[in-house]
Each structure stands twice: as structure tokens, then as C-alpha cells.
Batch of 3 targets.
Target 1
Amino acid sequence: MKSIQTELKQLNKNLHKMIAAENPILYSAAEKLFSAGGKRIRPTIIFLISKLMNKGQIISTEHKRLAEITEIIHTASLVHDDIIDNCDKRRGIETVHNVFNNKIAVLAGDFLFAQSSWYLANLNNLDVVKNISKIITDFAEGEVRQGMISFDCQISIEEYIEKSFYKTASLLACSCKATIILNKNNKNTQNDFYLYGKHLGLAFQIIDDILDLTGLSKDLGKPAGSDLINGNLTAPLIFTLNKNPKLQKMIDKEFQFKENIDEAVNIIKNTNAIQKAKDIAEEHIQLAMHIIKSKYTNTNSKELLLMTYHLINRIN
């Protein structure tokens, strides 16, 4: 997005400053993640909403800081995710626990959560603090739920969507709402953008889960099929389960061999499960776009709508 390139560049610089730590190992572990880059989806959405809701298209200092805070929270969650899922790579580089060890990685994640909380408190807005704090609780809830249904063939689409909300959509929903709170808009507008972020987040997670099966490892920045290896049963697999008893047997044996993963991916690809999952993501994208189109269309809304629709087009 050309209109916010300056803000995104400054965000990247500020992130490095915000994770300053006296302990060099702790700093190195945290800094490694930000050096790897990332899509910066969450800050981009915050910047675009800020522009949409301000007549002068001004992105305030508070909104810039909120964008930085949400990116730190997101990054902290990735550190802990990688330990739980035992991922070797993230964004194409070795994960923190692989370079250091699990103990350092846990502490690095905790440090990032602590730093985000400190900067959050310094926004001096109690409603925003309450709103963003819920995200960290939801992350933990999501991880516990995912752990409880690992390799569980009885998982329903509804349970999958609920888990996806806690793990991904909550961050976007709450950060979109916080953007509006900082803008001093009313409760109805806050709720609109909460729902916008929720639908966007759910679509994003479903698309990510599809890409885990259809993408190449070099493009994903991590091994393809990681979800299957870790027992995270996602929408395409859930839609395939009832049609293929062999797949259920492989899940019951927790994909003992790499060949099982490859075979499972091929089974899924030979059904309409990926298209069905994409249809659900498309539905959530349309719901998100409807909120903007029905109430908030102006000259500044085009980029936000383009960004929203871009997420569904990540799949070829």
C-alpha cells in the first residue's frame, strides 16, 4: 500500500527500538523475529482504518503506537506457537527455540508480551488496555483448545472456527476496535470494526490453513503440511474426513511417517474440500467488506477494501 509505506518503514525501525533489552541473548532472540520481516497485516489494517476514519487522512501517534503494540503481541505469540508445534523454521529462517533453546524462546516470548503491555499502559486509555489485554487471554485459550483437539477426528467445523477465533481473529478484531476507541468513535462504530476484524481474521486463518496444504515450503517460510504433522486438523481436512476412512486411520496413528503426510495431502487435494474451505473464507471476507461498504464508504475506503479482498486472492 503506497499511501502507508512511510508509516510501515517507520514501524519496522521502531519495533527494533521497542524491544531493547539489557540482556544480549534476550535481545538477540527477540530481534531475530523482527529481522525476518513478515507481512505486517495487522499494522497495515490499523493504518488504513485510521486513514478511513480521519477526514485529513492523518494517522495519529497513538494509532502508530497501537500498530506497533499489536505487531509485538503477534510476534510474541509466534515464538510460543513455534515451541508448542516444534517448528524448525518461521518466515524462512530458523526459529528462536532452534537457534537458542526452549527456555530462552519462552523467555523471549514473555519479554515481548511484557514490552507490549508496558507500551499499551503508556497509551493512557483504559478502554484500549482492556480491549487489547483480552487478546493475550484469547491466545492462551486458543492454544489450550488446539491441544485438546489435537489428532481428534471428531472435531467439527464449528469447533475449528471457534479455535481459529481465539488463535487469530481475536487479535484483528480487538485491534480494529481499539483503533476506533482511540478515534473516540461511538460504541456502534467500535462494534462494527470489531466484527470487521473478526471476519477478516477468520478468513485469514482459513486461507493460511489451505496454503499449508497447497503452498510450497519456500513460499510458506516453514515446511508444508506442518498442521497435519502437529495434529492441527483444519477445514480442508475436516471436510475430507467423512469421505475417506483411510485418512482417519492415518490421523489415529498421528501420521507416523512422512509418506503419510504426502498421501494425506493428495487425498485432500483430490476432493472438493479445499474449495469448500475457500468458500467459507470468501463468506467471511464478504461479511467484512459489507460492513465497510454499507456504512463507511468514502474516498479513503478503497485501499482498505482492496487489502481485505487481497487476502482471499493469496490462493492461486
Target 2
Amino acid sequence: MAAQQPPATPPVTRSIGRALLWPAAAVGLGFLLVFNSLNPSGQVKPPAAAAAASVAPAPAGPTSAAPSASPALLLPRSVPKRILIPEIDVDAPFTQLSIGKSGALDAPPENDSNLAGWFKGGVTPGERGTAIVAGHVDTKTGPAVFLELSSLKPGSTVDIARADGSVATFKVDSVETFEKKNFPNERVYADTASPQLRVLTCGGSYDKKNGYTDNVVVFAHLDKVKRAGA
């Protein structure tokens, strides 16, 4: 499984501090790489902080802008508990992902093929900003939770059940595949004025030496909210 790599220091996730620091961290350091589960040694380490400012992001391809969320849809911070994507039979719990000793994002455990990861240093799904979810496409034992992620289409929905009892439903804007060597960090990870979601896994071709060549990224925006007790 695969994804781009977060900064060595997680971005501030609340109020003005987050709004100011998240874009700089995401764009400057080339933010999250979900690692290929069958070749974890193939990880890419983030550039040194001193050099980060000079790293230009990969050019962004054309994409339709995500609709702005109504203020009534904005949710407070609450940890995601489960992801459901009925169209591809995904119904999986979350584990929290953090940055390991190597300075890279730890991947979800490989001994559970039905498990999604959420980067706990970022926003929670439904908050203003870009929430990051990642999972394996396969493991050593076979297919995994996001095996069919690339088959989603614009208009598909992703439900995130949260600890506060609410369910945030995100509508897919696009599903795109990027070469890891040309990953568009700014486009994928930059902060946003509305609640958005990015779901990442591996794609492209695979070999034992280098792992997967690509990352599959689902771009989605918050479409509706079912609040606890509703």
C-alpha cells in the first residue's frame, strides 16, 4: 500500500494556528506517503526543513473545484470510528496513524486486511480542512480494504462514522492516479476552507524491489451530515 509522507512535526489542527501552519507544512514538506505494505523499506523520507522551502510542488492537473460546504454542515472535532463505502463493499474500523521514528507516517498494521488509517495529526473528517485517510490495497495475505478504491466515480459517497455519533457523508469529486515520483503534494494536502476528504492507497504496477509505482487518491467534499440522535 502506498502514500506521500507527512512533515516531521504534525501540523497544528485547530483554529488560527492550523489555518496558518497546515498549508506551509503540507506544501513545503511533501506530506503523506502511504507505504507499500509488501515493501516497507521503500519509503521516501521528507526533505530537510532547511531545504523544504525551495521544493516546488508538482504541477496540478485540471480538476473541478469542490463545492463549498454550508456552515450548517461544519462539524466539531471528533475521532473517526468507521468508514463505509457501500459501492465497493467497504465497512471497516479506523486506526490512528502517526509519524514514526523515521519521520514517515506509520502504515496501518499488515495483519488486518480490513482496517483503514486516519492521520491523527490532521483534521477529523467533517471539520473544516482536509482530512487524510489511507489504507492498504493488499497485504502479504491477499486483498485489503481499499482494493477497489480506484473504481469509485464522481458522485460516489463515502460515509465516516464518528465518535460523537454523527455520520459525515462525503461525495466524490474525482478519483485520480499519480506517479509517486510526481505526486502533487499541494493539490492533495493543502488546507481548504471547507470540509474535504482525501482517501489514498497504492496503484499502478508492482514489483518486489520498488513496490507500487503510483498512488490512487479520492478527492471528496462533505455533502451531508447525520447528527447523533437524528
Target 3
Amino acid sequence: KNNDFYTDSAGRSFDSGGQGRHAMESQFDAKSIEAQRFAKDLCAKLRQAALQNRFEKLYVVAAPAFLGVLRECLDDNAKTRIAGEIPKDVARQAPEDIRSKLPDYL
């Protein structure tokens, strides 16, 4: 949940024309910001590993939205090594469930 990224509850504000009060919402989507930060960290590690020839092929399994963020930050050297992508969110699944979703050749 987006609220899990914040330590405090939302602030309160008065309506501009009356006695009503309401919670103020954050202008930032913490979940999206955290996903972008994680993607940049991952891309930096993949960039370094590709430069050191630590892998020839890369198969990426990620939620579709995160896969898009990842594509944006990968450098060309790492992108050319992507042998396949599987747009599935498997982060909370057991290893045997993830394995069942992957092609046999992986």
C-alpha cells in the first residue's frame, strides 16, 4: 500500500470556504517512486555485470508495469543480452509456482 511508505498519517486542512476539515493527500506516489529507485539500482547492477561479461543471456520476469520501468533504464549493452521477457507479477509466489510459469528451457 502507498501508505506503508509513510511514517505519519496524512495532514489535516480546513476547507477554503467553510468549517470542514479533510485529510491532505500526498502529491507523490511512494510506490511508484520506490519502484523507479529499485529499477535504477537493478539497472546499474545489470550494466556492471554486462560490462564484466558475467552473463550472456538475460531472462526477465517482472510485473508488466515494472518491466516498462526497467526497459527505460537499461543500457544498450544489457538490452542486447535480453533473451526473453515474461510479464508476470510473481513476487509473492512460492518458487515452485514461479517455476511452473516459466518455459521448460529456463
